[in-house]
């Protein structure tokens, strides 16, 4: 009977290796899984083939980034191979060979080497936080502990796909108004810099007392024309300072997140996106066996909104003290009564992950409906905004002309 050399991890997380007698590879896998072992490597015979792995420097590790679809494909393919009985190390080596993204390829090679030298899969993934976020690492860790790594990976892929869809919908809602606003401002700038100043000489030659609105528009126009470089540089400096304030300052981030939730038209969309992300992430973690306190910590870090993170952290402190999760959430205006009541029911019935999934599905539908509604609302709003800008410029030019006509008509009478 053939002999198969194996390396595996036990339930206690310790590495083990040895030789098992089996008729074929599948039977050897079945024997090892019957002993509650997570198979890392399995080779026929007693010699182990060791694959050379390219080194990954700390610099490359810190700069590595991966597209969402690459992550989804990797996660799904790993789930398929592991559920088909392919050992973890062999599956990782296959992914390294077929990966096209150089940064991802080197990261996976390093993960494979880490597992080969005794690291848990989750520990090896955790060395690349830019590629494998905290939720990914913790779910894999839960899968390793429960022996359901393939199921957890499928759940992770579904989570990533749902998040990617949500991001696409947000981009869809924001792309048109951003492009339209750039065009409107470009047209306005052209009028103010190149067209309006030409009327100043005409008005000066007529020695007219100009209306207030004309004086204001001409003043702005001449400033933009004569000091365009300084105006553009000042505008760019203000924009950069605002971005740095939001990114680097906790207060700035908090004010920006409040503004996003409070702004007309887009505020409800950002609120629904935050609730969908909260419920989906929390549901996925709880269903994967991640403890509630650890799940709440991850959800807080991935909420995408400082205000919501503060509420979740407060709720986590309550749960740590033995209180309910729904209590502190219900005291916040960020969580609608429907959400907090469903969470309360889930806590009482033990079906929290199912109800959270229902909440996520509901808000996914709401986001889609809101995006469709915004598409029809934004266009007339932008047309009205452009009409006001151009209308003010045209009015400021035509008022003096009308005044001239009235003066000429009066003199002729």
Polypeptide structure, described:
The chain has helices at 25-34, 58-63, 68-83, 88-98, 102-116, 121-125, 134-146, 149-195, 197-206, 212-226, 228-248, 250-262, 267-287, 292-302, 306-320, 326-330, 337-349, 352-412; strands at 3-9, 15-21, 38-44. It is built from 18 helices and three strands. The longest helix has 61 residues, at 352-412. The relative contact order is 0.08. The chain has 413 residues and is mainly alpha-helical. Helix 4 runs antiparallel to helix 5 and helix 17 packs antiparallel against helix 18. It has a three-stranded antiparallel β-sheet with strand order 2-1-3. The protein starts with a strand and ends with a helix.
Task: Name the descriptors.
413 residues; mainly alpha; Receptor-associated Protein; three-stranded antiparallel β-sheet; 18 helices; 3 strands; 75% helix; elongated
Secondary structure elements and their pairing?
Blueprint: E1 3-9, E2 15-21, H1 25-34, E3 38-44, H2 58-63, H3 68-83, H4 88-98, H5 102-116, H6 121-125, H7 134-146, H8 149-195, H9 197-206, H10 212-226, H11 228-248, H12 250-262, H13 267-287, H14 292-302, H15 306-320, H16 326-330, H17 337-349, H18 352-412
Antiparallel strand pairs: 1-2, 1-3
The percent range for helix content is: over 70%
Based on the structure given, which CATH architecture of the domain at 58-160 is correct? Up-down Bundle
Nearest-angstrom radius of gyration?
A: 31 Å
**SS field, number of helical segments:** 18
Q: Specify the overall morphology.
A: elongated
Which structural class is indicated by helix and strand composition? mainly alpha
- What is the distance, rounded to the nearest whole angstrom, between the alpha carbons of the first and last residues? 121 Å
- Level-1 CATH class name of the domain at 58-160: Mainly Alpha
DSSP strand count: 3
The residue-averaged pLDDT reads 81
Trace the largest sheet across and list its strands: 2-1-3
CATH topology type of the domain at 58-160: Receptor-associated Protein
**Element order, helices and strands?**
EEHEHHHHHHHHHHHHHHHHH
Q: DSSP strand (E) fraction?
A: 5-15%
Contiguous low-pLDDT stretches (5 residues minimum) are 46-63
